[in-house]
Amino acid sequence: xxxxxxxxxxxxxxxxxxxxxxxxxxxxxxxxxxxxxxxxxxxxxxxxxxxxxxxxxxxxxxxxxxxxxxxxxxxxxxxxxxxxxxxxxxxxxxxxxxxxxxxxxxxxxxxxxxxxxxxxxxxxxxxxxxxxxxxxxxxxxxxxxxxxxxxxxxxxxxxxxxxxxxxxxxxxxxxxxxxxxxxxxxxxxxxxxxxxxxxxxxxxxxxxxxxxxxxxxxxxxxxxxxxxxxxxxxxxxxxxxxxxxxxxxxxxxxxxxxxxxxxxxxxxxxxxxxxxxxxxxxxxxxxxxxxxxxxxxxxxxxxxxxxxxxxxxxxxxxxxxxxxxxxxxxxxxxxxxxxxxxxxxxxxxxxxxxxxxxxxxxxxxxxxxxxxxxxxxxxxxxxxxxxxxxxxxxxxxxxxxxxxxxxxxxxxxxxxxxxxxxxxxxxxxxxxxxxxxxxxxxxxxxxxxxxxxxxxxxxxxxxxxxxxxxxxxxxxxxxxxxxxxxxxxxxxxxxxxxxxxxxxxxxxxxxxxxxxxxxxxxxxxxxxxxxxxxxxxxxxxxxxxxxxxxxxxxxxxxxxxxxxxxxxxxxxxxxxxxxxxxxxxxxxxxxxxxxxxxxxxxxxxxxxxxxxxxxxxxxxxxxxxxxxxxxxxxxxxxxxxxxxxxxxxxxxxxxxxxxxxxxxxxxxxxxxxxxxxxxxxxxxxxxxxxxxxxxxxxxxxxxxxxxxxxxxxxxxxxxxxxxxxxxxxxxxxxxxxxx
Length: 739
Known about the structure:
- The chain has helices at residues 3-38, 43-59, 66-70, 80-104, 110-132, 145-177, 182-208, 217-225, 227-247, 253-294, 312-328, 330-343, 356-375, 378-387, 403-422, 429-443, 452-487, 489-523, 532-560, 563-585, 587-593, 599-631, 639-665, 671-698, 703-738.
- By secondary structure, the protein is mainly α.
- It has 25 helices and no strands.
- Helix content is 80%, strand content 0%.
- Helix 2 (43-59) packs antiparallel against helix 11, helix 6 (145-177) runs antiparallel to helix 15 (403-422) and helix 20 packs antiparallel against helix 22 (599-631).
């Protein structure tokens, strides 16, 4: 047999490991978010529970491997060498796409990715077979198009049904328990947890273990025939257990319910989605064994359509790889953070922006709400609003949402997925869990008028990514398959090189980004509680150092026409401004912590944050045009302009050195001296502007460089003015807090 096929098999197995890693990173959000968002247990406990579910589910997934072999195409229509190219194209595409979505922090469906990658690659390979005149000329003989249509209908159904069910059940649940649920939960808690445990158990049995060696056809038939009695017994049993744990042992049963749901979803994920990661590679390995035994690379692969029993050791190894990835993958946390950020109850900096569509949806919802309010009795509205009265800042924990919503998310998702499975609907675990979470957060009034437009944009972005997944997966797989079928062996080496380079570049970019974020997080201290003054002083001191450093390097970069340095300074200035802007969004929360102090304290704090924002904005407005001048290859500054700006830079550095020294020593006695330095700088800037006007009249400077000179002068004045005002307000803020 040609050695190229041995190489392809080795590559397929290596890609299977890689796919397991990137696949878990994407799908971990499905079963971790409710537990992590509600902080039902320490993170290591949540991860341990999910890991056990993954390992057990992977061992029981032997009945799910047919999807990769004959779910989308008819293997008997393809020869061994053609089907190996098809499988390789699918795996190369899958690794790239899942890594891309993980890097962006967007959850996507591995099922949809796999199906449409198989479809795209199969279509191209079939067209090559037809072009060679080696088989039927009817493309429909090669492709199972009904499967793709079923997946699309499943997407539409799961998105709408999950969102509506999540919203309705969360609304009813909150009416029953309210946010102050401790009292009512003592009465209804055992019944609620009994229902939740029953739904989760039903889900684990009929979704998580469906098709496994444990769930034999005889056992499944027996359970199905006695379903009503079985569900009743489970509800009664779980309710009694919940009551005993609550009343006798004082256990918080909600936390156990959330952990049980996490285990159940992790079990189902591994049991059903494992095929998405290793099914193609295992099919490739089996094809290789068949061809090697026959000695004919042209043999048709109809044997792949036969029932398959997966190797238990392969399944166990795959489960262990997924479990390890769950603990080590930072990208998994990135994807989880997206959903938790969209569902959190608190306001703050939003990841997504505003669009005309999201604004229109919010306006429509507000108008509908006003219409309903006009027709509802006032007493009923007051009763409803009382149930939805949020916790105060002092009552809240640092969880993104409470345990009641976490149990709703897990219970509803489990029921819907189990129901879809029993009706043979191709529901996606990702779609259902995400949309249930979004529906419950909407009903829970987590999307207030301050955040709704941004949250809706985020949800629409994720949903559009799901639909684009199908198109992108089909297109990229088709392109890769074209290269492989056209160039054959050279195409294999070319595509392997391309994929390795893409993954290497992605990993390097992500590592750089993560290091930068970790560095910022290390410097960032939450402005809350007793450390608010210390935190604010430390952050302003760091910001002032960064301002003068970026300003100096920007001028140096424009003098030397160093495009790379200027681009770096633009990015750093933008990050600095975004961080200051984030503080403005946290004003309300910080002022809540300051409410024990007098009004003047809060007033000075608002001023400090506002001046910080304006100073960083002015810096960005200096860096950006400097970069554009050099990036567009315009003529730089002449010697006279450089000399004027160097003198201005020296004065700016002296002012910031004094400001930083005052912040480090908490001695603000040099404020008047800083005022003198500021006046000196402003006089120098005025003289420099007059000189530039003379140069412009004489035609001794380019128009672009001249305009930039004026802009730097103006924004430098703004930056220094706001910084001096900031340090003055900071002094008053600190002194008022100390009093």
